[in-house]
Design goal:
It is a single chain. The protein is of the alpha+beta class and 195 residues long. It has a single domain, classed as 3-Layer(aba) Sandwich (Aminopeptidase). 37% of the residues lie in helices and 32% in strands. Strands 1-2-3-4-5-6-8-7 form an 8-stranded mixed beta sheet, with helices on both faces. It is globular, with a radius of gyration of 16 Å.
Length: 195
């Protein structure tokens, strides 16, 4: 399962990506950890432990098999550059999911993440048949907010103390798109970001 943008290739990570993933995560420690949940006590460190990373990749593959989530590494010119995930897919009457992402600081601000988001939206709406996708962002995370601003996603409001981030329950702004919005904006977004 591989998705293609204009400049990005998105594919599930495997244990063979460990060295590249570890190098990017180590180099971006300060850039990323302030926006991420704390690692649980006694949980292995996927950045330093190859087996823990392999287990993480296997868990993501099980999610794909179960249809409960899809995780993709972002590759630019063949180099690992970040991740984007479709998380917590709800089927039935809900048909919705959450999108999460991060990018290597060396690739930030170059449009790779909006391109990746559009590729994931196209996959989620057109291949998976989801109805609604949500992206939640800490209000002060201006880099992440810039992604949804470039894509002109609809803001739905503030969710107070929404997620534990770096040991603190943080408020998040919620942005979303429905399949109806995708249908009306598809050509515009695909032309701008994927072709």
């Amino acid at each position: 399962m591989t998705l293609h943008g204009r400049r990005v290739v998105l594919r599930p990570l495997s244990v063979h990506d460990f060295e590249a993933w570890r190098e990017v995560r180590r180099r971006n420690h300060d850039w990323l950890t302030k926006w991420e949940p704390q690692r649980m006590p006694n949980q292995p460190d996927t950045i330093e432990d190859r087996q823990a990373f392999a287990s993480r990749c296997a868990a993501r593959m099980r999610e794909i098999q179960l249809g409960s989530g899809y995780g993709f590494g972002i590759f630019v010119d063949g180099a690992f550059s970040g991740e984007i995930n479709i998380n917590t897919i709800h089927w039935g009457a809900h048909q919705s999911a959450y999108i999460g992402y991060w990018v290597d600081s060396l690739r930030a601000g170059q449009g790779y993440m909006p391109e990746s988001v559009v590729a994931v939206f196209q996959f989620a709406f057109e291949q998976l048949g989801l109805h609604r996708l949500q992206i939640s962002i800490i209000p002060r995370n201006t880099s992440s907010r810039r992604v949804v601003e470039k894509l002109e996603l609809r803001e739905e409001g503030l969710a107070e103390r929404y997620l534990e981030i770096n040991g603190v329950w943080e408020d998040h702004l919620r942005f979303a798109m429905t399949s109806e919005e995708w249908d009306s904006r598809r050509d515009e977004l695909v032309t701008a970001w994927l072709l």
